[in-house]
Design a protein that fits this description.
CATH architecture: 3-Layer(aba) Sandwich
Bound molecules: nicotinamide-adenine-dinucleotide, thymidine-5'-diphosphate
Order of helices and strands: EHEEHEHHHEHEEHEEEHEEHEHHH
Largest sheet: 7 strands, parallel
Number of helices: 12
CATH superfamily: NAD(P)-binding Rossmann-like Domain
GO biological process, one term: nucleotide-sugar metabolic process
Protein name: dTDP-glucose 4,6-dehydratase
CATH topology: Rossmann fold
Family: Belongs to the NAD(P)-dependent epimerase/dehydratase family. dTDP-glucose dehydratase subfamily.
Cofactor: NAD(+)
GO molecular function: dTDP-glucose 4,6-dehydratase activity
Radius of gyration: 20 Å
Helix content: 40-55%
Strand content: 15-25%
Number of domains: 1
Shape: globular
Distance between the termini: 50 Å
């Protein structure tokens, strides 16, 4: 298999590239612009593998994308490149509109022209997997789960830009016949997670004795999936998903934010009992504007149709994750010092 991955230097993309290169043995071309969230250090374990290549390019650059398709000749595209942080999208949405919407359009149209010229066998085997989020469905109340048929109702500039890109991808299937599949996944966590998102930020702040900023009352619920389970799901969907279909991905691990933070504190208390209890660092801060109350995924279509199942529970995954950060300061220290040191993002005057 020849797989062109976009955003492979990011959190989920790097887990996917490691899985494809080492676990599956696919030929992989990783196309990434290396924004603040892109980090080649996450790919150290595969960087010299003979079946791995890296291309430093922006997906919005149509000429570079055409060149990449023409020279690499993929039979599968797995599109993950995006701006991914809700709080940054609240501070300013320009890059989100550009990469998530215009970039997806650029890649889709490049893929369509490339696919059009393939011979019949390669044409029918070709797949374009668009990797999206459950946040496109908006917010749930106390009951119910997101299904593939749940109407789109995004709340943040981030989720609205992802919703727009999902619509483009499905339109390219209905209009041009491009064999696309769309995956909508819940919140991921695990190793190599950029420390702006809840879980890695709380781990590193707690380790450094800094305040743990919980938005609002901490009762918002997210449905957590270990990133390596997501990487396996993406390969499954790209290889066996039906063209034109959407697949929800999630591991039935709903947790309130405050309970996630308490769990991280308890694990750290076990390791550094002299510095505990870490939960004394928790600080309830001003809520995020437009903060969705609850996300929860029904993944039964993916489980029954394609046989995927999450392997990690939240308990096993969070334990592994905290220990990974304890053991891999070489990876996160330069990010905390040079890229993002944990200041609050996504609040603005008048709110
Ligand atoms: P991330 O922010 O960690 O990584 C994004 C990667 O895309 C980075 O390597 C960055 O350099 C690259 N990139 C950004 N703009 C680019 C451009 N214009 N051209 C080329 N590369 C560019 O993101 P992530 O958390 O790994 O998420 C990956 C994908 O999965 C995204 O599409 C996101 O919407 C989706 N997703 C994320 C989650 C989650 O919990 N993180 C959940 C569901 C879906
Ligand atoms: P986040 O990791 O930003 O993911 P998303 O917004 O895509 O769900 O946030 C997860 C949850 O944690 C969300 O409800 C917002 C909350 N949160 C905090 O309470 N404090 C923080 O410092 C951050 C970054 C998030």
């Amino acid at each position: 298999m020849r797989i062109l991955v976009t955003g492979g230097a990011g959190f989920i993309g790097s887990a996917l590239v490691r899985h494809l290169v080492s676990g599956i043995g696919a030929e992989v071309l990783n196309v990434d612009a290396l924004t603040y969230a892109g980090n080649l250090a996450s790919l150290k374990s595969v960087e010299s593998a003979p079946n791995y290549q890296f291309l430093h390019a922006d997906i919005c650059d149509r000429a570079r994308m055409q060149e990449a398709f023409a020279s690499f000749r993929p039979d599968t595209v797995m599109h993950l490149a995006a701006e991914s942080h809700v709080d940054r999208s609240i501070s300013g949405a320009d890059d989100f509109i550009q990469t998530n919407i215009v970039g997806t359009f650029s890649l889709l149209d490049t893929a369509r022209h490339y696919w059009d010229e393939l011979d019949a066998r390669r044409k029918s085997a070709f797949r374009f997997l668009h990797v999206s989020t459950d946040e496109v469905y908006g917010s749930l109340g106390d009951e119910g789960l997101f299904e593939e048929t749940t109407p789109y109702d995004p709340s943040s500039p981030y989720s609205a830009s992802k919703a727009a890109s999902d619509h483009l991808v499905i339109a390219w299937h209905r209009t041009y016949g491009l064999p696309v599949v769309v995956s909508n996944c819940s919140n991921n966590y695990g190793p190599f997670h950029f420390p702006e998102k809840l879980i890695p930020l709380m781990i590193l702040n707690a380790l450094e004795g800094k305040s743990l900023p919980v938005y609002g009352n901490g009762a918002n619920v997210r449905d957590w999936l270990y990133v390596e389970d997501h990487a396996r799901a993406l390969f499954t969907i790209a290889s066996r998903g039906r063209p034109g279909e959407k697949y929800n991905v999630g591991g039935r691990n709903e947790r309130r934010n405050i309970d996630v933070v308490h769990r991280i504190c308890a694990i750290l208390d076990g390791v550094h009992s002299d510095k505990g209890p870490h939960r004394r660092l928790i600080n309830n801060v001003t809520d995020r504007p437009g903060h969705d109350a609850r996300y929860a995924i029904d993944a039964s279509k993916l489980e029954s149709e394609l046989g995927w199942k999450a392997q990690e529970t939240f308990e096993t995954g969070i334990e592994k994750t905290v220990h990974w950060y304890l053991e891999n300061e070489w990876w996160w220290r330069p990010l905390r010092e040079n890229v993002y040191s944990g200041e609050r993002l996504g609040v603005f005057k008048g709110r």
